[in-house]
Amino acid sequence: MLLAACGGGGGSGGTGAVSLAITDAPVDGVDQVWVQFEAVELKPKNGSAIRFEFDTPLSVDLKTLTGSNTEVLLNSEEVPAGEYNWIRLIVNADFDGEPDSYVMTDMGELVEIRVPSGELKLVSGFTVVQGGEASFVIDWNLRMGLTRPPGLPGYLLKPAHRIVDLQEYGGIEGTVDTALLTHESCTSDMNTGEGNEVYVFAGAGVTPDDVDDVDPEPVTTARVMLNEDSGNYEYSLPFMAPGTYTVAFTCQAGDDISPDPTVLPPPDPAADNVIEFTPGIDVTVVAEQTETVNFPGPI
């Protein structure tokens, strides 16, 4: 699947392994979001970048990678032990007439995607221990990153992301009362779940807000879907770094328009949308545990 290419050196001696997968926070209004990955690069603190290139470019529909669904990019690949500065994902995504990366809209239209500079760079240092393995999941947040600016021939997919260390992570899950999903103010689709989202913000006591390039911005979001076995409407956030968060539900997430990165200076005023949320609930995530946060109906 991969060709471990040139580069590297400068490690502390010996080797370890790196695993890397990608997941996604959901977005509304599109059926598919295909991104073609060409290579993954890792930069040792001392030495040149190590490049892992796919034998055949890997095409992934990010829209399918919600909840616990992931796509593996690196699977226990051997690398020199030592400190690393960054991870870079190289993608084929531009307005070039080649349908390598594209959106399929809910109207059946195929529209090309451009990822600025053709890469996603994660500047988050990590260490590979000799004989050990460093394992990460990248959450590429489509709700915050995917936008279709006027005047451009397609979508822009900004590098809105976070990286979670799978050596130390927890989760959040819960249910949402049906009364909140069917309130007269809702603009969501009960059949597909689009528009019904739980937003997560870093820190306690945060007043929930939409995605608008102005703090507070959500760390990630999760779709609320019917569990046919339990009969409950549920959400799941399985990849959360330990820490304190504020979570809130909205049934108007479909009205949350991502900021246009071509608007200068930012922020994009058109992205300041009035979204109604439930009051925020504080939750502390602990490694190797899943916290339960339920959203009851109005009293």
Question: Brief description of this entry?
Answer:
The chain has 299 residues and is mainly beta. It has helices at residues 142-145, 178-181; strands at residues 2-4, 15-25, 30-44, 50-61, 71-80, 82-92, 102-105, 110-114, 119-122, 126-128, 133-141, 146-147, 155-157, 161-165, 170-176, 197-202, 220-223, 225-226, 233-240, 243-250, 281-285, 290-292.
Task: Summarize the structure in words.
The chain contains 2 helices and 22 strands. β18 and β19 (233-240) form a beta hairpin. The protein has 299 residues and is an all-beta fold. The chain folds into 2 domains: 1-167; 168-299, Immunoglobulin-like (Sandwich). It is globular.
Oligomer: single chain
How many individual domains?
Answer: 2
The general outline is globular
Q: Determine Rg (CA atoms, Å).
A: 20 Å
Give the low-confidence spans.
none
Residue-averaged pLDDT, rounded? 90
| Helix and strand element order | EEEEEEEEEEEHEEEEHEEEEEEE
Supply the number of helical segments: 2
Features:
299 residues; mainly beta; Immunoglobulin-like; 10-stranded mixed β-sheet; 4-stranded mixed β-sheet; 22 strands; 3% helix; 47% strand
